[in-house]
């Protein structure tokens, strides 16, 4: 079993820490995931000297990302999409509406939404208006309006 190493995070990593934090992680996680993606650097004396600068830059970047996420949330909440589906007897829908369908419907309106950030409480299997939440930032969640209509 490999011993943990110390790394300095360059960006915020879920369930690990914020930018500028010095954390102990397993060697493989650092070598195969964090360092190649630019999320962390090994905790050398030179990188430890930059910790304060990294924290200052992270604070600036975080406020900028939060502002962009809030702006994107207002744009997304102002738009609703219609998705048409084939239905059978008693307006019973065949299959369900997936996050991929929602992503494509917004893309048709020239709005980029990552389907991994969409959260469906349960699969959409009925006609009508549905609320789908999208997590744009750790502190910002937008509500998307998706209307499923009968295909003619």
Protein architecture, described:
- The chain is of the alpha+beta class.
- The chain folds into two domains: 4-49, Ribosomal Protein L9, domain 1; 72-150, Ribosomal protein L9, C-terminal domain (Ribosomal Protein L9, domain 2).
- It is 33% helix and 26% strand.
- Strands 4-7-6-5 form a four-stranded mixed beta sheet. It has a three-stranded antiparallel beta sheet with strand order 2-1-3.
- Strand 6 (128-135) and strand 7 (141-150) form a beta hairpin.
- The longest helix is centred in the middle third of the chain and has 27 residues, at 51-77.
- It is elongated and about 70 Å long.
- The model has no long low-confidence stretch (mean pLDDT 88).
Which features characterize this protein?
152 residues, alpha+beta, Ribosomal Protein L9, domain 1, Ribosomal Protein L9, domain 2, three-stranded antiparallel sheet, 33% helix, elongated
